[in-house]
Each structure stands twice: as C-alpha cells, then as structure tokens.
C-alpha cells in the first residue's frame, strides 16, 4: 500500500526559537516586576512613610530621591571611578581570555588536557580564599588604596572560566580553517585576530556583558583595597548611602536605579549576539 504523503517538516530552527521565546518570557516574568517596583520606589517622595501595599505609580511622583542620592552619597565621583575601572578591566580581561583560549586550543592535546584540568581546579578555589595573599602582595607593592587592585585581575583574564569558554569556542572551529591560514603564511596572532576572533563574536559579546556586570557590581574587592572615599566605586557608595538614613528608602532606591541602569544597557546591547546560535562553520 502506498504510504501517505508527509507534510512539510518544521523548520530546523523552529524548536530553538520556541525555547528562546519561552526563556525570554520567563526572564520577563521573573525580573521585570522587581525592576518596576525599584523604579517606582525611587520616585517616591523622601521622608514619607512606606506604603503598606506596593504602588506602581507613587503619589506624589518626586525626583527628590535622585537629587539627594547624588548630593549625599557621592555617586557622581563613584560613578566615574566605576566607569574607569570597567573601561580598563573589561576589554583587557576579554582580550587576555580570548588570546589564552586560542593558545590553549592550538596546543598539543596532552598539554591542553593538563591546562584544562588545572583551570578546573582553579575554578574550585573560593575567591575569598585568595583575599589574604592578594592583599599581602598589593600591600607589599604599595598599591592598596588605589584602583589598581580592581584592574589587575584582568591581566590574568579575571577568571579561568572565561579562558575555558573561549577555548571551547575556538576548538569548535574546523581544523581546515587553521590549515588554510597556515598555508597563507599567517602568523598565530593574525590568525587569532583576523580569522578566529571574528567567528566567535557571540561568545565575545556574552563574556563582555558578563565581565562588565561582575566588574560593575564588585563590592568585596573595593571594600578590601580602597579606603579613600574619593576612590569609592558605586557599590561602596551605595553602602555608604544606605547607612546614612536606613528608613529613607527612596534615596537608596534612586541610587540603586542609577547603579543598575548601565548594566541593563550593556546587556541590551549585547543580547542579540549573546543569544545567537549560529554555526561558525557555515560562515567560512
């Protein structure tokens, strides 16, 4: 008996798009309501008692919380310090991690396995366990109470995780691509910069956004290394703002909005490439 004719098969990327849509809806449902309440609370008139129920639109709407946060919390100076740290540490960290990941992908398999195992062991070490030796080193070098200890980890790629992510991305590229580059007599640095790195732009966008958020919200390192109020970053300034008047929550919420907005902007700019699932071999 002649079989029934099958209908057209679904598009290959339909399932992936459906899962991404569900993920986006989940993120919106989980994160948007707290953000709306944060913004709404920041426009509440300072000095008034808190409302017994959450209000999406406060009555009256006031920007006095932002004015007091900027005037009392030193957020202007702290914002400049955070921008300086992020502007140096984020691109430096991404470039070092990308270069290390490319080198790791091009090493001999036995050497690569050893380095990957060592990186996984390093990831298991808690960051707090390194505070004392790092503090001793920076103090010996006379770098405490400066912004250098906040930027120096970028010279090592910040985290072994970033190197491993780039290693997996570069390893996924076809070996024939590297062989063709060698036939063209390209140096390893040119292969990395002109061929391999452009093919892993979604990884670069994602790690850039992640590094920026972690650097921008870093509280522990500034707390340990920075003592001068003029060198405070935004997390330290928010802590100082919260202890001035713990009951005046609109002022603190206004400072939290100012500190959260740059991270949201960076994520929005990076999300298109961060969520892409293109096969790099199809573009070669």
UniProtKB/TrEMBL annotation:
Pfam families hit by this protein: BPD_transp_1 (PF00528)
GO biological process, one term: transmembrane transport
Keyword annotations from UniProtKB, A to Z: Cell membrane, Membrane, Transmembrane, Transmembrane helix, Transport
Organism domain of life: Bacteria
UniProt-listed InterPro entries: MetI-like (IPR000515), MetI-like_sf (IPR035906)
Residue spans crossing the bilayer: 21-43, 83-104, 111-138, 150-170, 191-216, 249-270
Keyword presence, Transmembrane helix: yes
Family: Belongs to the binding-protein-dependent transport system permease family.
Protein name, as recorded: Sugar ABC transporter permease
The organism of origin for this protein: Actinoplanes auranticolor
Lineage, highest ranks first: Bacteria, Bacillati, Actinomycetota, Actinomycetes, Micromonosporales
């Amino acid at each position: 008996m002649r079989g029934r004719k099958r209908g057209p098969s679904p598009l290959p990327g339909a399932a992936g798009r459906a899962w991404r849509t569900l993920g986006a809806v989940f993120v919106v449902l989980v994160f948007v309501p707290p953000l709306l309440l944060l913004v709404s609370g920041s426009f509440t008139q300072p000095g008034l008692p808190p409302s017994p129920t959450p209000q999406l639109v406060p009555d009256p709407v006031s920007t006095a919380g932002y004015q007091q946060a900027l005037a009392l919390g030193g957020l202007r100076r702290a914002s400049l310090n955070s921008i300086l740290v992020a502007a140096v540490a984020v691109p430096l960290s991404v470039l070092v991690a990308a270069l290390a990941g490319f080198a790791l992908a091009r090493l001999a398999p036995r050497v690569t396995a050893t380095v990957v195992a060592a990186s996984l062991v390093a990831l298991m070490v808690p960051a707090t366990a390194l505070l004392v030796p790092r503090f001793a080193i920076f103090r010996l070098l006379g770098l405490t109470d400066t912004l250098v200890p906040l930027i120096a980890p970028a010279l090592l790629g910040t985290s072994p995780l970033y190197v491993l992510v780039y290693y997996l991305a570069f390893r996924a590229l076809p070996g024939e691509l590297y062989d063709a580059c060698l036939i063209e007599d390209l140096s390893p640095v040119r292969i990395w910069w002109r061929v391999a790195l452009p093919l892993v732009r979604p990884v670069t966008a994602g790690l850039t956004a992640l590094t920026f958020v972690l650097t921008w919200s870093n509280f522990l390192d500034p707390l340990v290394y920075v003592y001068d109020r003029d060198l405070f970053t935004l997390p330290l300034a928010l802590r100082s703002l919260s202890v001035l008047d713990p009951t005046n929550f609109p002022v603190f919420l206004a400072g939290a909005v100012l500190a959260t907005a740059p991270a949201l902007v960076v994520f929005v700019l990076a999300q298109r490439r961060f969520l892409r699932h293109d096969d790099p071999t199809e573009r070669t």
